[in-house]
């Protein structure tokens, strides 16, 4: 499970020196009900479910905003893997663009041997790039995913269950 705590972006020319780039928070969420994330107990959604307020919704497959074992606040986004859909891993992504993204700081934990893959898109989610895998622990930890040192425009973020497909038993 994870909760994206903040997305940091660049603001060129606002630093102390002329033309310097400073970083500032450009988006933040805790996947809370006050932000439009309705908690459910349905994790096996093969079609993307929408969470969050209009204009800043997250789409999630095989996962949900949940109150069980919340990482921060009263709920967090949780993703699953099902043997009945062995090649599909839970994921969630921003269904909106965020401007001038340099990095993402997020808190995450696991309940089994697991990791999370983070990537970004600059073409509305048509393609994803910059994939990085973070090995999670059973205790909440904060991780930093760097998108660009100078900031990229129109960024969408994706968090995916990082389990590797199970090998099929020989016949």
What does this entry look like structurally?
With 171 residues, the chain is mostly beta strands. It has no helices and 12 strands. The chain has strands spanning 2-12, 21-27, 49-51, 58-61, 63-66, 76-79, 91-94, 101-108, 115-121, 129-135, 141-146, 156-161. The strands form 3 sheets. A 6-stranded antiparallel sheet has the order 3-4-7-12-9-10, with no helix packed on it. Strands 2-1-8-11 form a 4-stranded antiparallel sheet, with no helix packed on it. The chain is globular.
What class would the helix/strand composition place it in?
mainly beta
Q: Fraction of residues in helices?
A: under 10%
The whole-number mean of residue pLDDT values reads 78
What is the CA-CA span between the terminal residues?
A: 35 Å
Radius of gyration: 17 Å
* Continuous helix count: 0
Tell how many strands the DSSP assignment holds: 12
Largest sheet: 6 strands, antiparallel
**Strand arrangement in the largest pleated sheet:** 3-4-7-12-9-10
| Uncertain runs | 165-171
Spatial shape? globular
Order of helices and strands: EEEEEEEEEEEE
Q: Report the portion of residues in β strands.
A: 35-45%
């Amino acid at each position: 499970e994870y909760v994206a705590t903040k997305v940091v972006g660049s603001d060129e020319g606002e630093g102390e020196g002329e033309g310097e780039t400073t970083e500032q928070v450009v988006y933040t969420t805790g996947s809370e009900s006050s932000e439009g994330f309705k908690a459910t107990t349905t994790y096996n959604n093969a079609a993307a479910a929408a969470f969050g307020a209009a204009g800043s919704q997250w789409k999630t497959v095989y996962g949900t905003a949940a109150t069980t074992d919340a990482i921060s606040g009263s709920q967090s986004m949780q993703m699953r893997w099902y043997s009945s859909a062995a090649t599909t891993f839970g994921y969630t992504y921003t269904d909106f663009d965020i401007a001038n993204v340099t990095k993402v700081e997020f808190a995450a934990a696991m309940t089994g041997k697991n990791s999370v893959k983070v990537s970004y898109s600059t073409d509305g989610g048509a393609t994803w790039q910059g994939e990085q895998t973070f090995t999670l622990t059973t205790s909440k930890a904060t991780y930093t995913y760097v998108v660009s040192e100078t900031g990229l425009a129109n960024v969408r973020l994706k968090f995916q269950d990082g389990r590797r497909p199970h090998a099929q038993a020989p016949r």
